[in-house]
Write a structure and sequence with these properties.
By secondary structure, this protein is an alpha/beta fold. 38% of the residues lie in helices and 11% in strands. It is globular.
């Protein structure tokens, strides 16, 4: 399903900060590589309108889809985002945790090679785009170990990245308003965007 709280409200927040954004509803309940191909096509179409810098932001399973668009090795230059921001994504398709994402994307009996080929931490290369990542230690749906796997992979590859782990907070916080320290993620993300020249 698409989470409405992680679509238009996010666009409104970015617009209020002077960042042009739109919602892309990638196909759900479809097998890999359909979501990846759809996101790549959307990035190509956006670039074809004259937009020079394209970033992708995704939440939960959408974070995994956005991460695939950023890190999958066979993307053409015009279909890979310039930066990516990921919120509490299921990173590994090899872990036993959050198996629902794996089953929806890969099926019940996905072989080890396919699971590895769709695990974000396995795909990170030095040329991967700069990444902003946040998660909460209290997430019981997608445990925080997923974020640590990706952050470690980014560090090993030397990819510019910023990672924030907040002690408390459930899954699917979206803008995380009134969610304790996790509510700081929007200001931190905006500051990161500004530091790279992607936000005014």
């Amino acid at each position: 399903m698409h989470a409405e709280r992680s679509s238009e409200p996010i666009v409104e927040w970015l617009a209020s900060a002077g960042v042009a954004a739109s919602v892309f509803r990638y196909p759900v309940l479809t097998r890999h590589p359909a979501p990846l191909l759809a996101i790549r096509e959307a990035i190509r179409e956006t670039r074809s309108t004259g937009v020079e810098t394209v970033g992708v932001m995704g939440f939960s399973a959408g974070g995994h889809a956005a991460g695939l668009a950023a890190y999958a090795p066979d993307g053409e230059r015009d279909e890979v985002p310039d930066f990516v921001a990921l919120a509490y994504p299921p990173v590994s398709m090899e872990l036993g945790t959050h198996g629902a994402s794996r089953v929806n994307l890969l099926g019940e009996d996905a072989d080890p090679a396919l699971r590895a080929a769709t695990s974000l931490d396995r795909l990170v290369a030095p040329e991967a785009p700069p990444t902003f990542l946040w998660h909460t230690g209290g997430d019981t749906v997608v445990p925080v170990e997923h974020a640590y796997l990706l952050a470690s992979a980014l560090a090993r590859a030397g990819v510019p990245h910023e990672t924030h782990i907040f002690e408390r907070g459930n899954h699917a916080l979206s803008l995380a308003r009134d969610a304790g320290t996790a509510s700081a993620w929007t200001a931190l993300c905006l500051s990161w965007l500004q530091s790279h020249g992607w936000a005014p």
